[in-house]
Amino acid sequence: MKIAILGAMREEIEPILEHFGKYSEEKYARNSFYTTKYAGHDIVLAYSKIGKVASAMSATILFERYGADILLFTGVAGALDESLKIGDIIIASKCVQHDAELEAFGHPLGFIPESDHYTLTDPVLNSLAKKVAAELDLELLEGIIASGDQFIAGNEKKMWIKQQFAAAACEMEGASVGQVCAFYAKPFFLLRAISDTASGDAGVLFDEFLESSAKIGAQFLIKMIEKI
Length: 228
Ligand code: ADE
Prior knowledge:
Layout (H helix, E strand, L loop, with lengths): L1 E6 L2 H11 L3 E5 L2 E8 L2 E7 L4 H13 L5 E10 L9 E9 L21 E2 L2 H13 L4 E8 L7 H11 L1 E5 L2 H11 L3 E9 L5 H24 L3
Helix pairs in contact: 1-6, 2-5, 3-6
The structure holds adenine.
Adenine binds next to strand 5, strand 9, strand 10 and helix 6.
């Protein structure tokens, strides 16, 4: 099986590359794609750069150029659910684009015609994540993750996303990558470790906790790959 691992930022992927130690790098489309073997699997890794466009493009390349069979996303997110604290891990049951708005045509917020309103993640990979969490004695929340091309750093927008989409966390890539996976009918897994509150202090918290939270997500993903 060929496993694609995708993050948005260098910090989200670097701990995994460091853990693998040996890998090849190919530069393509202003990005780097890293290939290696780990736990009996062919692996291809990349960080896309921030946002829905770059992440959708990287996901497409991972399927079209590298022949990935499944895609695992890891990175950080802002907390919407009150129970989520910095460093906690959430997996997406499904994800939605909170900045998709075609209400003029009678569509609900987040809905894009001929796409899924909420993109489902893979139940088998989600079950595996819960098993890994239990083994590590880690609490794992499963919930809706909302994505958009906006860094959320204010209570008004935070509460709006939370209420409109029943979302537990917000970030900037999950739902676009999920859309690509759905179009290719490939299993999709979306993991985020909380880096900030998505409130007024989110920028400062993000800068402080990006690296440590990204590492928590990356380490969890490595454990998962060892069990696939
Ligand atoms: N990724 C991490 N924190 C975020 C936030 N507050 N808004 C959007 N994406 C994020």
